[in-house]
Write a structure and sequence with these properties.
The chain is mostly helical and about 375 residues long. It contains 15 helices and two strands. The chain is about 75% helix and about 0% strand. Helix 2 runs antiparallel to helix 3 (about 75-100), helix 3 crosses helix 8 and helix 4 runs parallel beside helix 7. It starts with a helix and ends with a helix. About 45% of the residues are buried.
């Protein structure tokens, strides 16, 4: 039983990060359905964090009431940065990049986030390059293979693969998004630059989230504060850019379903799980699963949006999974090396968190480890 328990405990972080990417795929489908109905995506972002705030604030007050006394200016500032980089700014930069370039190009740019996260993690001493070790080489190679797979997945089509055919298409009247003119090079370059900035925002969010979890290991409260900040920032931006008040109206239609899913699943649950993954394994661990979202988006799109799978999707998906395995193997080997001298259950639990955070987290370890146990139920 002890071995089975350890196995389940070890599989929990990767399985939950996979769940994050499944939610991300559903979020992309909801974005498509809402945009197909004519809704401004900037307003979806604002509503997304409003719904998440309504869910997470009561949970934080009930389950982590003692965290109120630990909120100080630094915590609020870090929450502001999380809401900015992981919410309003990062999301809107991505959407604007999508307008100026194309969905394909923007998707490819987002999958550069693991590379930026890896570089920033090394700069902030949250990860060690350790290129001379097998674990270090595996992490570097895995990151490169995963990004390469995402690029193959995005830019190479190949022959069409008919694995299944559901004949289901929820986009009954799809609006063809007008891409940029081939001669409009200026807008395309601007869109590429905005996509690059959105990747950096994702990396900065994960780095800030990791820093915040050191002194403030309250995951419900962290998520609630980020959602509050994101809803304020996103609402201000949407109000300044969208003058049509009819866009803000929600009825019993796909718009309400989209913003409810985006808020409850895409922000409340997904941000909580990402925060927990960053708290346990560091920012690189959470970001390296991002390319896997492309695979789930393609599968879900083929099932309910009548989108077609191609050979490039299969090859890219295999490369993504191989790159992910290499990074996870490298992280596991690092943790095994650290636990060889202290092979105790308590040491194993402590070494789930990034090594540089352990001293600061010892006093809060019991509280931090108790939080995920409350949230994870089938």
């Amino acid at each position: 039983m002890g071995r089975i328990g350890n196995l389940v405990h070890g599989l929990k972080p990767p399985l939950l990060m996979v769940l994050v990417q499944v939610i991300f795929a559903g979020l992309n489908v909801m974005y498509k359905l809402a945009a197909n109905d004519g809704m401004d995506l900037r307003i979806i972002i604002a509503y997304r964090f409003m719904f998440a705030t309504v869910i997470m604030v009561p949970l934080a007050l009930i389950l982590e009431r003692d965290s109120l006394g630990k909120i100080n200016r630094m915590v609020l500032f870090q929450a502001f940065l999380c809401g900015l980089f992981g919410g309003s700014l990062g999301q809107n930069l991505y959407l604007q990049s999508l307008v100026f370039t194309s969905a394909t190009f923007a998707s490819a740019m987002v999958n550069l986030a693991p590379a930026f996260t890896y570089i920033l993690s090394i700069c902030f001493k949250m990860e060690k390059l350790a290129i001379g070790t097998v674990a270090g080489k595996a992490k570097l190679l895995g990151t490169f293979v995963g990004i390469s797979g995402a690029m193959v997945f995005t830019f190479y089509k190949g022959i069409e693969i008919n694995i299944w055919s559901t004949h289901v298409n929820l986009l009954h009247h799809p609006h063809q998004a007008a891409g940029p003119s081939p001669h409009d090079t200026g807008k395309f370059i601007l869109g590429a630059f905005l996509g690059l900035l959105s990747c950096i925002c994702i990396a900065l969010w994960l780095i800030t989230q990791a820093k915040m979890s050191v002194k403030f290991p309250y995951l419900y409260s962290t998520t609630a504060l980020m959602c509050i900040m994101g809803s304020i920032q996103g609402s201000v931006f949407a109000l300044c850019t969208e003058k049509d008040w009819n866009q803000w109206k929600l009825g019993w239609n796909i718009r309400l379903l989209a913003v409810a899913f985006a808020g409850i699943m895409g922000s409340a649950l997904m941000v909580f799980l990402v925060s927990w993954g960053v708290h346990l394994r560091g920012p690189l661990y959470a970001s390296v699963f991002n390319p896997l979202g492309l695979v789930f988006v393609a599968i879900l799109g083929s099932l309910i949006l009548n989108e077609k799978l191609h050979l490039g999707s299969i090859i890219g998906g295999i490369l993504i999974v191989c790159g992910l395995y290499l990074v996870l193997w490298g992280k596991a080997k690092e943790m095994k090396q650290k636990t060889q001298l202290v092979p105790t259950p308590m040491a194993d639990k402590e070494l789930e968190a990034p090594a540089e955070f352990l001293d600061d987290q010892n006093e809060n370890k019991d509280k931090a480890e108790a939080v995920p146990q409350i949230s994870i139920h089938p």
